[in-house]
Amino acid sequence: MSPGKGLIADTEVKSIIYGPVPSWRLGRSLGVDLVSTNEKTCSFDCIYCQLGKTIHPLAKRRQFVTIDNLSQELTSVKNIVADYLTFSGMAEPTLASNLGEAISLAKSILPLPVAVLTNSSLMPREDVCHDLAQADVVIAKIDAPNDQLFRKINNPVIDYSFDQILGSIDHFRKRFRGKLALQMMFIAANKDYARQMADIARQLLPDEVQLNTPLRPCPIKPLTPDEIAIIEKEFAGLKVVSVYQASKPEVVPLNLEETLRRRPKL
Ligand code: SF4
């Protein structure tokens, strides 16, 4: 069986929408998993990933769930109270080739701003940036200061280099009218490169930099609040939020099982 067919077989959609989850970056975040495979589908296999190993490594876009299914689910949660509708889940959302159509549909049904959490891996593709540009908030991942550490931390399966990805975020920044945030996960492997990563952030001119460390269960130990505070000093002059300082709202997910599948610890 080809990897493509395997993925279709694995796409057993119980629900595309999950949460709301309490997000330190987005408040009450109602999730949309536009890939919705049973196991993780990603173009990365980050060493700190809270979702375990990448079972379906994928670098090419395709459709996983239909716009009709999404439309039905969005209509059924019309009255939910949330701060953002967030495209994320058990996968890299830009792998879904109907992301742009899905964002536009979501905006026509729900009165919520739309955020997309992306690992940035496919941003060198014009169609991906075109889709992302329809969101109100794009949160793009950068965990490394150079190609070598990028490969060590993120284990990409894509052909693009680290510099190509940075170049594409720069290009996107110049034409995107919404809020662009950079998410940076700090762990032992990159904590000594905070200055270089802050320099990268200054070149990309994000609206915000989100400093994270893995606080949910995973094989990598989080940095301490003191270590993150030292890292934060390197980002002076930029708007920074840190996982240790941000507060999270109380929320009750619509479907706990489907939510915990994508977010093992709320
Ligand atoms: S990009 Fe996100 S989902 Fe993919 S492996 Fe990294 S942390 Fe996990």
Euclidean distance between termini CA atoms: 36 Å
Helix content estimate: 25-40%
Beta-strand percentage? 15-25%
Oligomer class: single chain
The outline comes out as globular
Going across the biggest sheet, name each strand in turn. 1-2-5-6-7-8-9-10
What is the tally of beta strands? 10
Structural class: alpha/beta
Give the count of helical stretches.
9
User: How would a textbook summarize the main sheet?
Assistant: 8 strands, mixed
Please trace the helix and strand order, writing H or E for each element: HEEEEHEHEHEHHEHEHEH
Poorly predicted regions are 1-10
Q: What's the alpha carbon Rg, rounded to whole Å? A: 17 Å
Q: Which compounds are bound in this model? A: iron/sulfur cluster
Average pLDDT, all residues: 91
Short description:
It is globular and about 45 Å long. The protein is of the alpha/beta class and 266 residues long. The chain is built from nine helices and ten strands.
Describe the structure.
The protein has 266 residues and is an alpha/beta fold. The chain contains 9 helices and 10 strands. The strands form 2 sheets. The protein has an 8-stranded mixed sheet with strand order 1-2-5-6-7-8-9-10. It has a two-stranded parallel ribbon with strand order 3-4. Strand 5, helix 3 and strand 6 form a beta-alpha-beta unit. The longest helix has 14 residues. It is globular and about 45 Å long. It starts with a helix and ends with a helix. The N terminus is likely disordered. The structure holds iron/sulfur cluster.
